[in-house]
Design a protein that fits this description.
By secondary structure, the chain is an alpha+beta fold. It has one domain: 3-Layer(aba) Sandwich (NADH Oxidase), CATH 3.40.109.10.
């Protein structure tokens, strides 16, 4: 197995970082360069990356989201933003219409581009012998983050990435059985036993953060009344009418 495949197969999330470790500027630049080289639809690059090293800004993020103290304790925190403002400026300059509010397609494109850039950053971090964790819960405070970081209309914070030197070793988390995820030629039905099998696998894995079985966690999540926070943010930022 080559080194790239080893990195990919052994990637795991870290939440405990050495607070005294200073990320070299050259390493940060390498991570950003790798992120920016990710695939992008039509080479549109519909995302922006906000690099947060300022302590006060990151303290504010933790005040809003106390379950993720690593946003402050890591060496750097990146926020990946869906960015349709850049091409809005292009349309203004070209004096053409900019019709993005009547369909979710532009949002899907921007979200996908940002996610691909994020994954490139994650693997670049691993290749440097460092660790990271993705933070999707920043969307719960998207409106506040837009104001804090002066994000213009047609941009939206999607997820963050804490980067640093891990202080606690983490095990590689088991994934769903391949038969429940990978299909050849067409989508193939699979027995529900595979889900129950994964429930047991994760219970045996014994991650302290997990208080419920995998299936119960997502049954409860999707049964809960939607908060509509993201929908409100999308309208506020003029992604949708």
């Amino acid at each position: 197995m080559n080194e790239t495949l080893k990195l990919l197969k052994n990637r795991r999330s870290y939440r405990d970082f050495d607070e005294n470790y200073v990320l070299p500027q050259a390493d940060l630049q390498a991570i950003l360069d790798a992120a920016r080289q990710a695939p992008s639809w039509m080479n549109g690059q519909f995302y922006s990356i906000i690099v947060l090293q300022d302590e006060d800004l990151r303290k504010q993020l933790v005040e809003w989201n106390p379950g993720n103290p690593h946003m402050l304790k890591s060496s750097a925190f990146l926020i990946f933003v869906a960015d349709l403002y850049r091409t809005d400026r292009v349309s203004t300059a070209k004096e053409t219409a900019y019709q993005i509010e009547d369909t979710v397609e532009p949002l899907l494109i921007a979200t996908t581009d940002a996610a691909l850039a994020l994954e490139n950053a994650v693997i670049a971090v691993e290749s440097l012998g460092l660790g990271s964790v993705v933070v999707g819960s920043i969307r719960k405070h998207g409106q506040e983050i837009c104001q804090l970081l002066n994000l213009p209309e047609k941009t939206m914070p999607l997820f963050g990435l804490s980067i640093g030197k891990p202080t606690v070793e983490m095990r590689v988390k088991p994934r769903l059985p391949e038969a429940a995820v990978v299909h050849f030629e067409s989508y193939r039905p699979y027995v529900y036993d595979l889900i129950e099998q994964y429930d047991q696998t994760m219970e045996d894995f014994g991650e302290a953060r997990e208080k419920k079985r995998w299936s119960q966690k997502f049954a409860d999540y999707f049964a809960a009344e939607p908060t509509m926070v993201t929908d409100q943010l999308l309208k506020m930022q003029r992604f949708l009418k």
